[in-house]
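REQUEST ID: PR-0412
SUBMITTED BY: lab tech R.K.
PRIORITY: routine
TASK: structure prediction, single protein chain
INPUT:
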Amino acid sequence: MIELKIELQGISPTIWRRVVVPNDISLDVLHNVIQGAMPWQDCHLHEFEIGERRYEAQESSDDSWDRGDERFDEKCFVLSKLVKKGDQFTYTYDFGDGWRHLITVEQTSKDGGRTDLDFPACIGGELACPPEDCGGPYSYEGFLEALTDKKHPEHRETKQWAGCFQPKVFSLQQANAAVGAMFVWGNEQHEKKLNMR
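STATUS: complete
OUTPUT:
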């Protein structure tokens, strides 16, 4: 198992999650686990930067990829083959808002050999993930100000847009349930993509 700390960059105090994932997790399935842990809604493009390489989702119908442009198909790579304890890499989600996550490999150990035990989990975290499409880390402070200050000129429309969002609330139980569901779904999608090659 690999223990990862995921920190959303550019926001203070830091919004973070700690997850454990199987050693054989592919990057496309790791993307799904991160989406569940934060949680994001998987409505935008993403990429991993590990070392000097960028790993992205490549659809079978996408013929825009050039083998020389240093982009690699994330579904073809397993996390444990790319990182070791102490390594850091980034995961960027939504290039418009620019949600950049710093991921630290905190621990590594052998999987137990049982799929029911070698299952990802969210084991810690703090603060709510920002709502989708709220403008990115540079707009988030202004968004929170409008949301929480009743005298702010945009308070009413921001509160209506944000719905029940509570910036200080993090539920480990909800994050764990989402991680499990996204892992199962991600594995199903991974198998379908591999079979289409």
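NOTES: The chain has a mean pLDDT of 91.
REVIEWED BY: pending
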